[in-house]
Design brief:
2 copies of one chain form a homodimer.
Chain A lengths: L1 H6 L3 H7 L8 H14 L5 H8 L4 E6 L7 H14 L3 E6 L6 H9 L5 E5 L5 H10 L3 E4 L9 E5 L1 H14 L4 E5 L6 H16 L4 E6 L5 H13 L6 E4 L2 H15 L8 E3 L16 E2 L3 H17 L7 E4 L3 E2 L10
Helix pairs in contact in A: 2-3, 5-12, 8-9, 10-11
Chain B binds a DNA duplex (30 and 30 nucleotides) through α2 and α4.
Chain lengths: 329, 329
DNA sequence: GGCAAGCCTGAATACGTTTACAATCATCCT
DNA sequence: AGGATGATTGTAAACGTATTCAGGCTTGCC
C-alpha cells in the first residue's frame, strides 16, 4: 500500500495506526497518519469487514413511511446506531411480499443486525437470520410466536383506555376507522374497543371501516357515515391525519360541532394534533421509548447471540385535548 | 466454500452461477442454486466489492430532516437507487461541521456515489471525492463555484413570483419569516422579495426575521409583530408549519381575519397546507423533479466520471389557496 | 476420421485489510 | 555483563469473491 511505503513502514503498521488500542509507537502512528493525510487515504472498511467476517452495518427496513411519524423513528434510530459505531443500510419495503427479498439483500452485506419497521417476517427468513446469528427486531409488529424480538404498543390496553374514556363521557355510538389492517396492535385495539363497547348497556359500534387512511379518506368517511344515517357520536381513527379529516369533514361539510356533537380521537399524536385549529385528542406514540428498546435489544444480542427473543409491549397514554368533551359526565 | 463442495463444482463455478451473463451451463447453474438454497447461502457482496474495488453502495447524508417533506425525498431517492441496483447507506448529519466526517465515513465503504440533502460541502472534501472519482450531488444547496453538482430551486424566480403575487393584490406591508438562514435559495428568495417590494411605491418590508421555524415559532412571531405595531398585511414563511402557526395565531390569538386582514403564504406545500382548516397558499416543492435530476446526475457520472458538475435550478409554482385574497385588485 | 471452433470448467491470482507469530530492540534488574 | 521483560515491528496467512488463462469437452463440418 502506498501509505505504508510513504511512511516507510509495513502494511501491518498502517492497520495498527488506524486500530484504536493496537500496539504501535506514538511516533510511528504519527508518521502513518501524516502519510495518510497527504495521500487522502481512508481505510477500506470493506476489506476489514471481509476478514472480520462481520460488518458494522445494520439493515433498516422501512415500510409505511408516512405513518406514526416514522421519520423521527428513522432519524433517531440512525443517530443512535451511528453513536454506537454502526452504519445504516436503508431499504424501502414497497410490498409485504418483498420483505424476504430485502432481508436477503442486506444479509449479503454481512449486516450485524436488522431492524424492520412496520412489517412482519416470514418464518423461513427469521430462520435464516437466526442461523447466521444476525439479531432482528420488529418495530410496530408483535413478534410473538415468530421467533423475533419486537417492540410494539399494547393494543388491548390502548383499546380499553379509549373505550373507557368514551364510555365515561356517555358516548353511545362509536365509529372505528382503521387505516391498515396489518398493524396487529391496532387490530387488537379495535377488537378491545368493540368488546368493551358491546358489553356496555345501550352502546354500540356504529361502524368499523378498514382502509381509511389519510385526510381525504377520513373526510370522505365521516360524510358517508352521516349520509347513511349511521351517525356516530364518537370516532376513533388509527391515524391523526384521518382524524383531522374527520374533524374538518364534520365542521366544514356537515356543520356538525366537534366535540359537542361528535368526539374525535386520533392516534400517534403527530405535531399537527396540537394545532389550535383542531386540538385533537390523540394517543401518544412513545418514539423515544420504542427506539430505546430497539437499540437495547439489538445491542444485547450482538453481545450475546444466544439470548431469547424479547417481545416488548408499551402502554401508551392518551393525550386529551378539546376534540373530545372535557369531563366525564 | 461449502456450496461448491455440495454441488461438486469449483468456487469459480459458484461465482459464475451468481453472476448474470457469466459463462456457465444451465445444468451446473441449477445444481449450484440448489446447493445454495439448502445451505441458505447468499453471496458475500463485501468480498465482491473488495475485488471489484467499488461497492454498489450510495451514501445518503440527511440534514434538516423535518423540512420540505424530506421524508418523501428520502424515500423516493432510496427506492429509485434500489431500482438501479444500488443500496443506500444513510447518515444523519447533526451539525454542519460534521458533514466532512460523514463523507469520509461513507468513503470508507467505497461508495459509488454520494447525495447530500440540505448541507454544503467544504472544498477539501469535494476535492477528495473528485480525486476518488466518486460523484456527489447536493440537494437544496446551490453548488455553484464549489465544484459540486446540485439540484435546488430558483430562489430569485421564487421571490419574484411571491412579490408580484402580493403586490398585485395591493399588499403594502410584507413580513418575511425565515426558518434557517443556511438554505441559500431561500435567502435568495428573501432578498428578491425585499428588492422588488422596496422598488414598489408605498410598499415596504414590515419585518424580516430569521430562526422562525415551526408552528409555535410562527404563532409567537405573528403575535409579537402585532404587539409591536409592526403590523404586516401579508406574511411569507419559508415553511408551511410556520405559516400555519401564523394563521392560527392571527385567528385564535389576535382575532385577525385571514385572508381579509392578513395574507399568509407558506412554502413546500406539505399535505397539511391543503387542509380545509387552513387552505394555505404555498410554493410547490417539486419532489419528483428534484429526485429525477439527482438520479440522472449521479448515474451519468457513474457512467462517465469526467463529466463537469451540473447545477440545476428548478422554477417552482405557486399553489394558490384561500389564505390569500382571491383575485388581483 | 480429423480438424476447427465454441462452450464450460478449474486452478491460480488478486483485492486491502486483520491478526497470529516470530523477530527485533531497548530497558531494567541482578 | 547477561539475561529477562516488555513494547514494537514485520512476515505471512487468511477472508470470500471475480477474473484470467489454459485445458477439456462437445459439436459440426469437410
Amino acid at each position: 500500500m502506498d501509505v505504508a511505503h510513504l511512511a516507510g513502514v509495513s502494511v501491518a503498521a498502517v492497520s495498527r495506526a488506524f486500530t484504536p488500542g493496537a500496539s504501535i509507537a506514538p511516533a510511528t502512528k504519527q508518521r502513518v497518519m501524516e502519510a495518510a493525510a497527504t495521500l487522502g487515504y481512508q481505510p477500506n472498511v470493506i476489506a476489514r469487514s471481509l476478514i472480520q467476517r462481520r460488518s458494522n452495518l445494520v439493515g433498516l427496513l422501512m415500510s409505511g413511511w408516512n405513518n406514526f411519524g416514522y421519520v423521527d423513528v428513522l432519524r433517531r434510530l440512525t443517530e443512535r446506531l451511528e453513536a454506537e459505531g454502526y452504519e445504516v443500510i436503508l431499504k424501502s419495503v414497497l410490498e409485504p411480499e418483498q420483505v424476504s427479498e430485502c432481508v436477503r439483500q442486506v444479509l449479503r452485506y454481512q449486516v450485524a443486525a436488522i431492524a424492520v419497521v412496520s412489517e412482519a417476517l416470514p418464518a423461513e427468513i427469521t430462520a435464516e437470520c437466526t442461523q447466521r446469528g444476525v439479531p432482528v427486531v420488529l418495530v410496530n409488529r408483535i413478534g410473538t410466536g415468530s421467533g423475533n424480538s419486537s417492540v410494539s404498543l399494547d393494543g388491548v390496553y390502548l383499546g380499553h383506555q379509549i373505550a373507557d374514556f368514551l364510555l365515561a363521557r356517555e358516548h353511545r355510538r362509536i365509529a372505528l376507522l382503521q387505516g391498515r389492517a396489518d398493524i396487529n396492535f391496532l387490530t387488537d385495539a379495535m377488537n378491545a374497543i368493540s368488546e368493551r363497547v358491546a358489553a356496555a348497556a345501550g352502546c354500540e359500534i356504529a361502524a368499523r371501516l378498514d382502509g381509511v387512511l389519510g385526510y381525504d379518506a377520513g373526510r370522505r368517511a365521516i360524510n358517508e357515515l352521516f349520509q347513511q344515517d349511521q351517525r356516530p357520536d364518537a370516532v376513533f381513527c388509527t391515524f391523526d391525519e384521518t382524524a383531522i379529516g374527520v374533524v374538518d369533514g364534520a365542521r366544514f361539510d356537515l356543520g356538525v360541532r366537534v366535540p359537542e356533537d361528535l368526539a374525535v380521537i386520533g392516534n400517534s399524536n403527530r405535531a399537527s394534533a396540537a394545532w389550535a385549529s383542531h386540538e385533537l385528542t390523540s394517543v401518544e406514540y412513545p418514539r423515544d421509548e420504542v427506539i430505546d428498546h430497539c437499540i437495547r435489544i439489538l445491542l444485547a444480542r450482538l453481545d450475546d447471540p444466544e439470548l431469547e427473543p424479547e417481545v416488548v409491549l408499551i402502554k401508551p397514554d392518551l393525550v386529551i385535548r378539546s376534540s373530545t368533551r372535557g369531563k366525564p359526565v
